[in-house]
Design goal:
The complex is a heterodimer. Chain A is mostly helical. Chain A has 14 helices and no strands. Chain A folds into two domains: 231 residues, no CATH class; 83 residues, no CATH class. Helix content of chain A is 76%, strand content 0%. Chain A is globular. By secondary structure, chain B is α/β, with parallel strands linked by helices. The chains are: A mainly alpha, B alpha/beta. Chains A and B meet through helix 7, helix 8 and helix 9 of A and helix 2, helix 3, helix 4 and helix 5 of B. The structure holds adenosine-5'-triphosphate and magnesium ion. Magnesium ion (MG) binds next to helix 1 of chain B.
Chain lengths: 316, 263
């Protein structure tokens, strides 16, 4: 009950914010929510399941493009377009997973990188279907149940996707499935000996989180009513990886903190130092890994453990 | 105890690595509640036997029947699901998880709740999670790691890591448990505790297949012992007959100075 109240309270706060923001701030806020949603699902894939996949942003792109193409070119109503786009993302994720989850570490990263690059090529060469390098524009979100959805409205839909992602992943993380994923990450041979079907578990984790990325991408498509290839390229895929590592890979809260921190610093640094902000991130990530491989959350846990130990010493 | 039907029957088990035959036509069976020792010099093929039984390695030939059903060649997770759990010669904990979570992973084969039910948060799913936690706690107490329940596994001593392997394998409610040198590296008091644990396991009716170099540890525990040398079984009998078997003494002479002499 208390937990439910907390969720409702958190959702309420997140949903009020968009109405208090100026247009520029609202845009930042929505994109921040998008990144946080992606970071949460990517943390489950990379941090918890140990799959070093670089296809997460590509699936966001698949969701975004699919829903727009299905609406504008196939003429599907929004609801149906969303369902079909999600199904498409799930089918593609399953195909990639069946091949990719048999690979480990470096090879998985390479295979999923190739897939992400292939998507960019398809988007760039897709002619009128994908709008080629210019992407797709001139579409808009139709009214939902008679409501015309404006800027704050898209933020609220993004919040819904974000919270659903978090709620679902928290639930399965705290079950045998989450344990199985972590066990495979830590030692797949021992995991198999404990009765875990390694390939199946990896496939489910990959497909589920990729569909979640696609859902976030769908909402993103209606932020500015434009989608174009560079957004879904490898730069952002790496950025997502940085967010999870800096925040503390394997920790839901860490992923959220990492995403907020890196996204905000990007938004504030880029106008000042231009593209050199990427260099700054490189340095931050290296330093973070050197100081505490478990990221900011790891540092926090360390400080807290020290405090508890000090208090115990003081008490005795 | 030993009058019952064999739980598992292994026939002609063979594993070749290129030109090397690591396990060569091995026959044996185990009954419920029996402790079967598996000994032999370094490189005799003991761990390889475990790896083939548990499905980690594909057998080159042979058969393995559980309740009369052929299960040789099934992948490791299916073998585990049949109730054959193992420990590893080198500790293989899940390092990112606490001691309790490690043991809970061992309960994987007992899980019945589907992901759908977990998402819905049904009462049955929650009760099952509680039960797994309670069972893990019980096993942690059973192997004597109560103090370490919530510790990170990286903070355990080597011996505690061995005990964790045991608790984790037991969490799967095995019918057969394979121990690969569980006493190696343990302090004398940890060894004593392990002896009590293994006896307790056998008393629950679980069949125990035990690889061990330390004869003073193994011989009092085992109901029966089989001896491997260069992948072949050279003896099979009670601890007393094994102790004096000339072929066994031969295989071990020069290495350990006689079976159980000092070890
Ligand atoms: N994966 C492998 N590839 C090639 N050869 C292997 C492999 N695993 C084991 N062997 C060889 O098979 C033989 C048996 O090894 P195994 O590990 O089963 O011995 P063991 O009886 O467990 O010895 P120890 O007492 O040292 O643990 C050895 O000669 C070993 O080198
Ligand atoms: Mg061995």
């Amino acid at each position: 009950m208390v937990a439910l109240m907390r969720w409702v309270g958190g959702a309420a706060v997140l949903c009020v914010i968009p109405f208090l923001l100026q247009p520029y701030e609202l845009d930042l806020y929505r994109k921040l929510l998008f990144w946080v949603a992606l970071a949460i699902s990517y943390n489950f894939l990379f941090g918890i399941s140990g799959q070093m996949a670089l296809s997460h942003f590509a699936f966001a792109g698949i969701g975004a493009y699919a829903v727009v193409i299905l609406m504008t070119q196939a003429g599907l109503p929004l609801g149906l377009a969303v369902v079909v786009a999600l199904a498409l993302a799930a089918a593609l994720a399953l195909i990639v997973a069946l091949a990719a989850t048999r690979l480990e570490g470096f090879y998985l990263a390479l295979a999923t990188l190739a897939f992400a690059q292939l998507l960019i090529v398809v988007l760039n060469e897709g002619g009128s279907l994908t709008g080629a390098t210019g992407g797709l524009t001139n579409y808009r979100l139709p009214p939902i149940f008679g409501f015309v959805i404006g800027g704050p409205g898209t933020a609220i839909i993004m919040i819904a996707v974000l919270l659903a992602t978090l709620a679902i992943l928290l639930r399965i993380d705290r079950s045998w499935f989450g344990r199985a994923c972590r066990a495979i990450r830590d030692n797949s041979e021992a995991a198999a000996a404990m009765g875990i079907d390694v390939a199946r578990t990896k496939t489910i984790a990959f497909t589920t989180t990729s569909v979640m990325a696609a859902a976030a991408g769908m909402v993103y498509a209606f932020f500015d009513n434009t989608v174009n290839p560079p957004v879904f390229g490898i730069d952002n895929a790496i950025m997502l990886l940085f967010m999870v590592i800096v925040g503390g890979s394997g920790s839901h809260l860490g992923a959220i903190i990492g995403a907020v921190l890196l996204k905000l610093s990007q938004d504030f640094l880029e106008p000042i130092v231009g593209h050199y902000h990427a260099l700054g991130f490189g340095v931050i990530v290296v330093v973070a890994i050197l100081i505490q491989p478990k990221g900011l959350i790891g540092m926090w846990d360390q400080i807290r453990a020290r405090r508890v130990a000090a208090r115990k010493r003081a008490a005795s | 105890m030993t009058g019952e039907q064999p739980l598992i029957e292994v026939r002609g088990l063979t594993k070749r690595f290129g030109g090397l035959t690591a396990v060569d036509g091995l026959d044996f069976e185990i009954r419920p509640g029996e402790v079967l020792g598996l000994i032999g010099p370094n490189g005799a093929g003991k761990s390889t036997t475990f790896n083939v039984i548990s499905g980690t390695y594909q057998a080159s030939a042979g058969s393995m029947r559980l309740d009369g059903e052929e299960i040789l060649g099934l992948p490791p997770h299916r073998i585990a699901a049949r109730g054959i759990m193992r420990t590893f010669q080198h500790n293989m904990p899940f390092e990112g998880m606490s001691v309790a979570e490690n043991v809970m992973v061992g309960a994987q084969t007992t899980v019945r709740s589907t992901l759908g039910r977990i998402l819905l948060g049904t009462a049955a799913a929650r009760a099952e999670e509680q039960a797994i936690r309670a069972r893990a706690d019980e096993l942690i107490d059973f192997v004597g790691l109560s103090e370490e329940r919530d510790a990170e596994v990286t903070s355990l001593s080597f011996g505690q890591g061995r005990l964790l392997e045991t608790a984790r394998a037991l969490a799967g409610e095995p019918r057969i448990i394979l121990f690969d040198e569980p006493a190696a590296g343990l302090t004398p008091s940890e060894c004593d505790r392990l002896g009590v644990i293994i006896r307790g396991i056998a008393e629950r009716g679980i069949a125990v297949l035990l690889i061990e170099h330390d004869m003073r540890f193994l011989l009092p525990l085992a109901d029966r012992v089989i001896v491997l040398n260069f992948g072949q079984k050279i003896a099979d009998g009670t601890p007393d007959t094994i102790r004096t078997d000339p072929a066994v003494v031969d295989a071990y002479l020069g290495e350990a100075g006689g079976v159980g002499a000092d070890a």
